Amino acid sequence: DTAVSQTPKYLVTQMGNDKSIKCEQNLGHDTMYWYKQDSKKFLKIMFSYNNKELIINETVPNRFSPKSPDKAHLNLHINSLELGDSAVYFCASSQVKGQYGYTFGSGTRLTVV
Amino acid sequence: GNSVTQMEGPVTLSEEAFLTINCTYTATGYPSLFWYVQYPGEGLQLLLKATKADDKGSNKGFEATYRKETTSFHLEKGSVQVSDSAVYFCASQGYKLSFGAGTTVTVRA
Question: H/E element holding B45?
Answer without folding.
Answer: strand B44-50
